[in-house]
Amino acid sequence: MKSCPKEIIDYMHDDLDGEINEAHHHALIEHLETCEDCKQHYYELKKTATLVRSISHIQAPKDFTDNVLARLPKEKKKIGFQRWFQQHPFLTAASLFLILMMGSFFTTWKQDQQLAFTHNPNLVVDGNTVVVPEGEVVKGDLEVRNGNVRVEGEVQGDLTVINGEKYMASAGKVTGDIEEIDAAFQWLWYEIKKVIVKVVD
């Protein structure tokens, strides 16, 4: 068979597929009469083709796939997480962004321990306390970080105290909302709200 023409094998396949022309069929028959190896090979190919055709109507049971999958070993959780990350790239990126942003916020929270406040000429600083003196009016929002605030006059806006305390004198007045933020998560939520307000405006 090694010394036989290569096209004879092609003729065998064409004949079994029913796609051989008459001239090639005649050449194949002549060759098979003279070559016992090719005749044996053709006979084995024909047996295989007949077997495949005879079992083509056989179908696997309906629950075959489920049974096979149930018998497979369970994959490790690590592989499951990796697959989830690969299948959900947008959620993975969003989660990573959120983790990095939270880390940045908490770093800022820890590093930002100095007294800071909204500057206004009517304010007085007494140690670690920002004072709105009696008779003075602060127009707009007042934000005090890492310190206390004492309102003896008037704040025409919101008052926000972050990581500190507020004291209201009997004559003190705040026309807007008063908010005390004394925990990192409250501070984080406050910062997110500020960003959202800036984006919306």
From TrEMBL:
InterPro entries in the record: Znf_put
Q: Where are the transmembrane segments?
A: 90-109
Domain called Putative zinc-finger: residue spans? 4-38
Keywords, alphabetical: Membrane, Transmembrane, Transmembrane helix
Quote the protein name from its UniProt record.
Answer: Anti-sigma factor RsiW
Taxonomic source organism: Oikeobacillus pervagus
